[in-house]
Amino acid sequence: MKLKFMLKQYLEVNYGDLDKFLTERFSFDEEYEFVAAEEVGNDSKTSINVEPELSKWDREHIEKVLETKKWECCQTRILLCYLCEQGEIPAGEYLISVSW
Question: pLDDT (tens digit, 9 = 90+) per residue, 27-40?
């Protein structure tokens, strides 16, 4: 039996750099924390598909974020898709690396 696999291309980002970038870009009152927001552990990688499209639900969430300057759990994809829609980052598969 042969091992089946798929070759993929990613935009790899360090979680600390992502935290600083999102905090600055959205002017969050408290620093963004990818590890807390996505509940991931040390020595892990999380894949996020980023496209320049937001659903009605996503748009409601991003409008709340822009108004309150506060982030909530599990919003990293929405934040990145919004930035992609605004032309600030490219679309693609992002691989967020966590290691401390």
Answer: 999 999 999 999 99
